[in-house]
């Protein structure tokens, strides 16, 4: 099966980083050309790329920073990379993937005094391969939790976590079908999730964000499966706004909620340690560029919400499924 286009939507080239514009996908396939770190950071801020896309953008953005600093003395080049990394991390505050990407590159640069561009490129490639490998493992563990014929409700765009889950099911001959919430206001579920699932040949039904509880009540869903932008060590799941409501409804109707994340975040002992990004409230007053409310009202847009552990059945990691009260076990396992 061919790789879905959104699984390879950030690419490094000689002339910069090319990012598939998810704001207009699937109606248009436009690649945004970023020649500098600042342009990469701005693309992340402007939602050109989302979910794991910013991780890959940060990896290759750090290579651009290394290219720009190639003629500087080693200590000045390293300082410039540090500044570039801080800028990329600041472009999205809730998801901690950008920090992981930056550290993957800087750790390789700091290993020796060799060519800074080559070191950055090695670090970025290693970070790319590691993320994909961990997503494959996570997908396999998720499929273990889903019976053959499972009807899955997902929310927003889970990116490689979702595509690897589907690929793992297909390798095993398990048939899955999906309900996708449309995910206001950017409609990632409608434009990204549903399109990619259809591209992979999976039966897919689009529903509005408010339909989840009704589907649960009718027994039409066997599992709620979403990604998580972060999971705190005390079991709180931070994900796209709307996840909390679905998780509460799933609990009420006895539907398990499996939250996918490569690893719980040791830098976030509690949910209070995770900054919640607020985006421009004007976004919720529009859909695909068309205003949907009058000028007499205002909008509020917290981009993420926090689901308490009592509404989470399983946190699926790349080292296996864990109960939300036992996330410390992830770090008790031997490092890969």
Report what the structure shows.
This protein has helices spanning 37-45, 53-68, 74-90, 97-109, 116-144, 160-172, 188-199, 212-217, 243-252, 328-332; strands spanning 10-13, 16-20, 31-34, 151-154, 177-181, 204-207, 223-227, 230-231, 237-240, 257-260, 286-287, 290-291, 304-307, 314-317, 320-322. The model has no long low-confidence stretch (mean pLDDT 95). α2 runs antiparallel to α3 (74-90). β14 (314-317) and β15 form a beta hairpin. The radius of gyration is 20 Å and the shape is globular. The two termini are 28 Å apart. With 336 residues, it is of the alpha/beta class. It has a seven-stranded mixed β-sheet with strand order 6-5-4-7-10-14-15. It has a three-stranded antiparallel β-sheet with strand order 1-2-3, with helices on one face. It is built from ten helices and 15 strands.
> What is the SS-derived class?
alpha/beta
Low-confidence blocks of residues: none
Which radius of gyration do the C-alpha atoms yield?
A: 20 Å
Main beta-sheet strand count, sense and barrel state: 7 strands, mixed
Q: H/E element string?
A: EEEHHHHHEHEHEHEEEHEEEEEEH
Distance between the termini: 28 Å
Helix share, percent:
25-40%
Oligomer: single chain
Number of strands: 15
Query: Quick check: average pLDDT?
Result: 95
Query: What percentage of the residues does DSSP assign to strands (E)?
Result: 15-25%
Number of helices: 10
